[in-house]
Amino acid sequence: MRYKATVEYVGTGFSGWQKQMFVPSVQEELESVLSFLLKEKIAVSVAGRTDAGVHALGQVFHFDVRESTLQPFQIVNAVNCHLKEKLIVLLNMEVVDETFDARFSAIRRHYQYRIINRKTPLAVFRNRYWHVPWELDLDFMREQAQCLVGKHDFQSFRSSKCGASNAIRTLDRLEVEKNGEEIIFYASAKSFLHHQVRIMVGTLVAIASGKLVSVTEILSGRNRCYAGPTAPPCGLYLLKVDY
After folding, report:
1. Closest listed residue to residue 153, CA positions, set 208, 228, 223, 203
2. Which 8-state DSSP code applies to residue 20?
3. Which fold has domain 2-96?
4. Any idea where the domains of the chain sit in the sequence?
5. Tens of pLDDT along 92-127?
6. Mean pLDDT, rounded, for 85-98
7. Catalytic site residues?
8. Where is 91: in which H helix or E strand?
9. Same fold, 2-96 and 108-242
10. Which residues participate in the annotated binding site for substrate?
11. Which reaction does it catalyse (predicted)?
12. What residues does 56 pair with on adjacent strands?
């Protein structure tokens, strides 16, 4: 029997989604609780692994169970009772066909990146936003963001640790919204390269700060050193996954 679940979590304090030796991870917390509740060893497969400090509002995973008398809502309630102090919450769960795969069945992933643009430091929003205390040219940032939409070679926008066989990706959406001190980026694509969203945001902030000139030149350069810094993980959220 295969279950599909949607989970929300705060990434602060975790090494990321993926289970690793000697450090806390979201995957390990979920597998531990699910294995205890369902009385068998559970392994979860996820739509997209998030890095240390990255948050999720709509991460999706699946797992298989040989036999269970628990209904999905009972599993959700029990997991949330165990993990609420860890700031990991299951939003929903359902039984799905065994052909469903959280990663390979996904047709689009949506990310959000949040910035607070003000001089004074953050208190309530610390570890939830990137604090940018200097002035940004928002109109130029929006203009340059649209140069990234479409099918491109994003070699300049992936980390050196990226394991993808090539850097060709199609970015369906990259929009920038401003509400008072808050600047929010929305990025959507079927798949992203390692650190791609954070590098795009860091580059656009550098451009809006007058430190870099043109996204087109950075794309054509096909070298990570041409792009801007990698934005901090605390501002990144996996918003939702489409199937």
Report:
1. 223
2. B
3. Alpha-Beta Plaits (3.30.70)
4. 2-96, 108-242
5. 999 999 999 999 999 999 999 999 999 999 999 999
6. 97
7. 51
8. strand 88-96
9. yes
10. 111
11. uridine(38/39/40) in tRNA = pseudouridine(38/39/40) in tRNA
12. 9, 238
